[in-house]
Amino acid sequence: MSTPPKTFITPEQYLEHERKAEYKSEYYHGEVFAMSGVSRKHDLIAAQLHLLVGQHLRGKKCRWHTADMRVLVAPSGLYTYPDLSATCEEPQYADAHVDTLINPTLIVEITSPS
Fold this sequence. Notes:
By secondary structure, this protein is α+β, with helices and mostly antiparallel strands. The chain contains two helices and eight strands; from the N terminus they run αββαββββββ. β1 (25-28) and β2 form a beta hairpin. The two termini are 29 Å apart.
């Protein structure tokens, strides 16, 4: 049995669909990957991380974002929603929608054994 060919979509097609979608997806090299939910433990770690980073950045020009801010990792072309991202420069965005950060200083992803 043969595997059906994968449908390649452009970053522009991904963003158009993602902006209307009810669920978040990541994009990498023409493929879209649905994001799964998080565990209770993951959520507790993320909440604590945001508190700690927020305290550390208090009074500085840096801004941090939750997993709701999409980030374009320019060298690889990955569009993702990291658990935490921060920028210490004037934020830059992929386009006029101002919903895809392109100059993060820090990207944090909480991993699990799975």
